[in-house]
DNA sequence: AGGGATTTTTGATTTTGTCAATAAAACCCC
DNA sequence: GGGGTTTTATTGACAAAATCAAAAATCCCT
Protein backbone atom coordinates (compact mmCIF):
# COMPACT_ATOMS: atom_id res chain seq x y z
CA UNK A 1 0.00 0.00 0.00
CA UNK A 2 1.08 3.54 -0.70
CA UNK A 3 2.96 5.26 2.12
CA UNK A 4 0.39 7.42 3.84
CA UNK A 5 0.80 11.07 2.95
CA UNK A 6 1.46 13.39 5.84
CA UNK A 7 -0.69 16.42 6.47
CA UNK A 8 1.16 19.69 5.97
CA UNK A 9 0.58 22.54 8.36
CA UNK A 10 -1.26 24.66 5.82
CA UNK A 11 -3.34 21.70 4.73
CA UNK A 12 -4.43 21.36 8.33
CA UNK A 13 -5.45 25.00 8.59
CA UNK A 14 -7.38 24.78 5.34
CA UNK A 15 -9.29 21.74 6.58
CA UNK A 16 -10.15 23.59 9.75
CA UNK A 17 -11.26 26.63 7.80
CA UNK A 18 -13.52 24.40 5.74
CA UNK A 19 -15.07 22.92 8.86
CA UNK A 20 -15.77 26.41 10.16
CA UNK A 21 -17.23 27.71 6.95
CA UNK A 22 -19.53 24.84 6.17
CA UNK A 23 -20.53 23.47 2.78
CA UNK A 24 -20.71 26.70 0.81
CA UNK A 25 -17.05 27.50 1.34
CA UNK A 26 -15.02 28.46 -1.69
CA UNK A 27 -11.64 29.99 -2.52
CA UNK A 28 -11.97 33.58 -1.41
CA UNK A 29 -13.87 32.80 1.78
CA UNK A 30 -11.31 30.24 2.82
CA UNK A 31 -8.55 32.72 2.25
CA UNK A 32 -10.39 35.24 4.39
CA UNK A 33 -10.80 32.75 7.20
CA UNK A 34 -7.12 31.93 7.10
CA UNK A 35 -6.16 35.54 7.36
CA UNK A 36 -8.74 36.60 9.89
CA UNK A 37 -8.75 33.64 12.25
CA UNK A 38 -5.43 31.95 11.73
CA UNK A 39 -3.36 35.03 10.96
CA UNK A 40 -1.98 33.32 7.89
CA UNK A 41 -1.96 35.55 4.84
CA UNK A 42 -1.51 33.61 1.65
CA UNK A 43 -2.32 34.28 -1.95
CA UNK A 44 -5.43 32.88 -3.49
CA UNK A 45 -3.42 30.47 -5.63
CA UNK A 46 -1.89 28.97 -2.53
CA UNK A 47 -5.36 28.26 -1.24
CA UNK A 48 -6.41 26.50 -4.40
CA UNK A 49 -3.27 24.44 -4.74
CA UNK A 50 -3.75 23.25 -1.20
CA UNK A 51 -7.38 22.42 -1.80
CA UNK A 52 -6.49 20.36 -4.84
CA UNK A 53 -3.93 18.41 -2.89
CA UNK A 54 -6.42 17.74 -0.14
CA UNK A 55 -8.87 16.50 -2.71
CA UNK A 56 -6.30 14.16 -4.24
CA UNK A 57 -5.61 12.79 -0.81
CA UNK A 58 -9.29 12.10 -0.32
CA UNK A 59 -9.84 14.52 2.55
CA UNK A 60 -12.22 16.92 0.80
CA UNK A 61 -14.60 16.86 -2.11
CA UNK A 62 -15.70 19.68 -4.37
CA UNK A 63 -18.48 20.47 -6.78
CA UNK A 64 -19.25 23.26 -9.13
CA UNK A 65 -21.79 25.76 -7.90
CA UNK A 66 -24.51 27.41 -9.90
CA UNK A 67 -23.58 30.75 -11.45
CA UNK A 68 -24.40 33.36 -8.83
CA UNK A 69 -26.77 35.40 -10.96
CA UNK A 70 -25.01 38.58 -9.85
CA UNK A 71 -23.02 40.70 -12.26
CA UNK A 72 -20.42 38.49 -13.89
CA UNK A 73 -17.87 36.05 -12.67
CA UNK A 74 -17.01 32.42 -13.12
CA UNK A 75 -19.11 30.03 -11.10
CA UNK A 76 -17.80 29.13 -7.70
CA UNK A 77 -16.38 25.79 -6.75
CA UNK A 78 -17.50 24.61 -3.35
CA UNK A 79 -15.54 22.42 -1.00
CA UNK A 80 -16.48 20.15 1.85
CA UNK A 81 -14.47 18.08 4.32
CA UNK A 82 -14.97 14.34 4.03
CA UNK A 83 -15.04 12.01 7.03
CA UNK A 84 -11.47 10.97 6.21
CA UNK A 85 -10.49 14.61 6.54
CA UNK A 86 -12.14 14.93 9.92
CA UNK A 87 -10.36 11.78 10.99
CA UNK A 88 -6.92 12.97 10.07
CA UNK A 89 -7.58 16.33 11.72
CA UNK A 90 -8.47 14.65 14.96
CA UNK A 91 -5.48 12.37 14.68
CA UNK A 92 -2.97 15.19 14.38
CA UNK A 93 -4.68 17.04 17.18
CA UNK A 94 -4.33 14.07 19.47
CA UNK A 95 -0.68 13.70 18.62
CA UNK A 96 -0.02 17.29 19.60
CA UNK A 97 -2.00 16.96 22.79
CA UNK A 98 0.08 13.97 23.74
CA UNK A 99 3.25 15.87 22.99
CA UNK A 100 2.22 18.85 25.09
CA UNK A 101 1.09 16.69 27.99
CA UNK A 102 3.18 17.33 31.05
CA UNK A 103 5.42 19.90 29.40
CA UNK A 104 6.37 22.71 31.75
CA UNK A 105 7.16 25.69 29.63
CA UNK A 106 8.27 28.19 32.26
CA UNK A 107 11.83 27.50 33.22
CA UNK A 108 12.62 25.23 30.30
CA UNK A 109 13.14 28.17 28.03
CA UNK A 110 14.99 30.31 30.50
CA UNK A 111 16.98 27.55 32.14
CA UNK A 112 20.76 27.75 32.48
CA UNK B 1 12.99 42.44 8.22
CA UNK B 2 13.07 39.00 6.68
CA UNK B 3 9.66 37.38 6.13
CA UNK B 4 9.20 35.15 9.14
CA UNK B 5 9.71 31.54 8.25
CA UNK B 6 6.79 29.28 8.91
CA UNK B 7 7.10 26.31 11.18
CA UNK B 8 6.71 23.01 9.39
CA UNK B 9 4.78 20.22 11.04
CA UNK B 10 7.83 18.08 11.68
CA UNK B 11 9.73 21.06 13.01
CA UNK B 12 6.93 21.56 15.46
CA UNK B 13 7.05 17.97 16.65
CA UNK B 14 10.81 18.12 17.06
CA UNK B 15 10.53 21.26 19.17
CA UNK B 16 7.96 19.55 21.34
CA UNK B 17 10.13 16.47 21.68
CA UNK B 18 12.99 18.70 22.79
CA UNK B 19 10.82 20.34 25.42
CA UNK B 20 9.86 16.93 26.75
CA UNK B 21 13.36 15.55 26.83
CA UNK B 22 15.06 18.48 28.47
CA UNK B 23 18.58 19.73 27.96
CA UNK B 24 20.36 16.43 27.46
CA UNK B 25 18.36 15.56 24.36
CA UNK B 26 20.27 14.41 21.33
CA UNK B 27 19.61 12.78 17.96
CA UNK B 28 18.65 9.23 18.87
CA UNK B 29 16.54 10.20 21.87
CA UNK B 30 14.60 12.71 19.84
CA UNK B 31 13.94 10.12 17.20
CA UNK B 32 12.68 7.73 19.85
CA UNK B 33 10.35 10.33 21.27
CA UNK B 34 8.95 11.06 17.84
CA UNK B 35 8.25 7.43 17.22
CA UNK B 36 6.97 6.53 20.67
CA UNK B 37 4.90 9.58 21.52
CA UNK B 38 4.05 11.15 18.22
CA UNK B 39 3.83 7.99 16.15
CA UNK B 40 6.08 9.55 13.54
CA UNK B 41 8.82 7.22 12.38
CA UNK B 42 11.59 9.02 10.58
CA UNK B 43 15.20 8.25 9.87
CA UNK B 44 17.92 9.69 12.01
CA UNK B 45 19.08 11.95 9.19
CA UNK B 46 15.65 13.49 9.01
CA UNK B 47 15.92 14.35 12.68
CA UNK B 48 19.27 16.03 12.28
CA UNK B 49 18.34 17.98 9.19
CA UNK B 50 15.31 19.31 11.00
CA UNK B 51 17.36 20.22 14.04
CA UNK B 52 19.82 22.15 11.88
CA UNK B 53 17.04 24.11 10.26
CA UNK B 54 15.54 24.93 13.63
CA UNK B 55 18.93 26.15 14.76
CA UNK B 56 19.33 28.35 11.70
CA UNK B 57 15.93 29.84 12.41
CA UNK B 58 17.00 30.65 15.94
CA UNK B 59 14.58 28.34 17.72
CA UNK B 60 17.11 25.94 19.26
CA UNK B 61 20.75 25.96 20.23
CA UNK B 62 23.20 23.09 20.44
CA UNK B 63 26.51 22.25 22.02
CA UNK B 64 28.90 19.41 21.90
CA UNK B 65 28.76 17.02 24.84
CA UNK B 66 31.64 15.33 26.58
CA UNK B 67 32.57 11.90 25.26
CA UNK B 68 30.51 9.41 27.18
CA UNK B 69 33.41 7.34 28.51
CA UNK B 70 31.63 4.14 27.50
CA UNK B 71 32.93 1.86 24.75
CA UNK B 72 33.37 3.95 21.62
CA UNK B 73 31.25 6.42 19.78
CA UNK B 74 31.43 10.03 18.70
CA UNK B 75 30.50 12.59 21.33
CA UNK B 76 26.86 13.58 21.45
CA UNK B 77 25.51 16.90 20.37
CA UNK B 78 22.89 18.25 22.73
CA UNK B 79 20.00 20.46 21.79
CA UNK B 80 17.83 22.87 23.71
CA UNK B 81 14.81 24.98 22.81
CA UNK B 82 15.39 28.74 22.99
CA UNK B 83 12.72 31.18 24.19
CA UNK B 84 12.02 32.07 20.57
CA UNK B 85 11.22 28.42 19.98
CA UNK B 86 8.86 28.27 22.92
CA UNK B 87 7.20 31.40 21.64
CA UNK B 88 6.57 30.08 18.18
CA UNK B 89 5.26 26.80 19.59
CA UNK B 90 2.76 28.61 21.72
CA UNK B 91 1.79 30.80 18.81
CA UNK B 92 0.92 27.90 16.54
CA UNK B 93 -0.93 26.19 19.34
CA UNK B 94 -3.08 29.24 19.89
CA UNK B 95 -3.85 29.49 16.22
CA UNK B 96 -5.11 25.92 16.19
CA UNK B 97 -7.15 26.43 19.31
CA UNK B 98 -8.82 29.40 17.71
CA UNK B 99 -9.52 27.42 14.58
CA UNK B 100 -11.08 24.54 16.52
CA UNK B 101 -13.15 26.84 18.67
CA UNK B 102 -16.83 26.26 18.09
CA UNK B 103 -16.34 23.59 15.47
CA UNK B 104 -18.91 20.82 15.74
CA UNK B 105 -17.37 17.75 14.24
CA UNK B 106 -20.26 15.30 14.46
CA UNK B 107 -22.62 16.01 11.66
CA UNK B 108 -20.33 18.32 9.75
CA UNK B 109 -18.67 15.40 8.12
CA UNK B 110 -21.85 13.50 7.49
CA UNK B 111 -23.98 16.52 6.72
CA UNK B 112 -25.97 16.41 3.57
C1' DA C 1 -19.73 39.90 -30.33
C1' DG C 2 -16.91 42.60 -27.00
C1' DG C 3 -15.81 44.11 -22.40
C1' DG C 4 -15.49 44.21 -17.55
C1' DA C 5 -16.04 41.34 -13.39
C1' DT C 6 -15.08 37.39 -10.67
C1' DT C 7 -13.26 33.02 -9.86
C1' DT C 8 -10.03 29.26 -10.91
C1' DT C 9 -5.91 27.04 -12.99
C1' DT C 10 -1.10 26.82 -14.52
C1' DG C 11 3.68 27.42 -14.50
C1' DA C 12 7.69 28.12 -11.84
C1' DT C 13 10.29 28.71 -7.53
C1' DT C 14 11.43 28.22 -2.50
C1' DT C 15 11.02 25.80 1.65
C1' DT C 16 10.31 21.33 4.24
C1' DG C 17 10.49 16.48 4.67
C1' DT C 18 12.93 12.32 3.63
C1' DC C 19 16.59 8.79 3.62
C1' DA C 20 20.88 6.21 1.91
C1' DA C 21 25.40 6.66 2.11
C1' DT C 22 29.36 8.73 4.02
C1' DA C 23 32.16 10.88 7.51
C1' DA C 24 33.83 11.79 12.50
C1' DA C 25 34.97 10.63 16.84
C1' DA C 26 35.87 7.74 20.59
C1' DC C 27 37.10 3.38 22.59
C1' DC C 28 39.66 -1.18 22.53
C1' DC C 29 43.41 -4.01 21.83
C1' DC C 30 47.17 -6.53 20.22
C1' DG D 1 50.21 3.62 17.78
C1' DG D 2 47.50 1.84 13.74
C1' DG D 3 43.41 -1.02 12.58
C1' DG D 4 38.82 -2.48 13.82
C1' DT D 5 34.36 -1.65 16.05
C1' DT D 6 30.89 1.21 17.84
C1' DT D 7 28.21 5.13 18.27
C1' DT D 8 26.93 9.52 16.62
C1' DA D 9 26.60 13.17 13.13
C1' DT D 10 26.80 15.18 8.33
C1' DT D 11 26.24 15.30 3.24
C1' DG D 12 24.08 14.85 -1.03
C1' DA D 13 20.16 14.08 -3.62
C1' DC D 14 15.40 13.87 -4.30
C1' DA D 15 10.15 14.13 -3.12
C1' DA D 16 6.45 16.71 -1.18
C1' DA D 17 4.37 20.95 0.42
C1' DA D 18 4.01 26.01 0.32
C1' DT D 19 4.11 30.01 -2.34
C1' DC D 20 2.82 33.53 -5.81
C1' DA D 21 2.54 35.98 -10.49
C1' DA D 22 0.49 35.45 -14.55
C1' DA D 23 -2.76 33.31 -17.50
C1' DA D 24 -7.23 31.12 -18.36
C1' DA D 25 -12.18 30.30 -17.77
C1' DT D 26 -16.77 31.71 -17.10
C1' DC D 27 -20.46 34.66 -16.50
C1' DC D 28 -23.34 38.98 -17.05
C1' DC D 29 -24.30 43.12 -19.63
C1' DT D 30 -24.97 46.19 -23.58
Please report the distance between the alpha carbons of the first and last residues of chain A: 48 Å
User: Topology as H/E string of chain A?
Assistant: HHHEEHH
Most extensive interface, chain pair and sizes: A-B, 37 and 37 residues
Q: If strands are numbered along the chain, what order do they take across the biggest sheet of chain A?
A: 1-2
Largest sheet of chain A: 2 strands, antiparallel
Show the helix and strand layout.
The structure is a homodimer of 112-residue chains.
Chain A (H helix, E strand, L loop, with lengths): L8 H13 L5 H12 L5 H13 L3 E5 L12 E5 L1 H18 L4 H4 L4
Antiparallel strand pairs in A: 1-2
Helix pairs in contact in A: 1-2, 1-3
Chain A binds a DNA duplex (30 and 30 nucleotides) through helix 1 and helix 3.
Structural features, described:
Two copies of one chain form a homodimer. Chain A is mostly helical. Chain A has five helices and two strands, in the order αααββαα. A two-stranded antiparallel sheet of chain A has the order 1-2. The N and C termini of chain A lie far apart (48 Å). The A-B interface holds A 6-9, 12-13, 16-17, 19-20, 22-23, 37-40, 81-83, 85-86, 90, 92-93, 95-96, 98-100, 102-103, 105, 108-112 and B 6-9, 12-13, 16-17, 19-20, 22-23, 37-40, 80-83, 85-86, 90, 92-93, 95-96, 98-100, 102-103, 105, 108-111. The structure holds a DNA duplex (30 and 30 nucleotides).
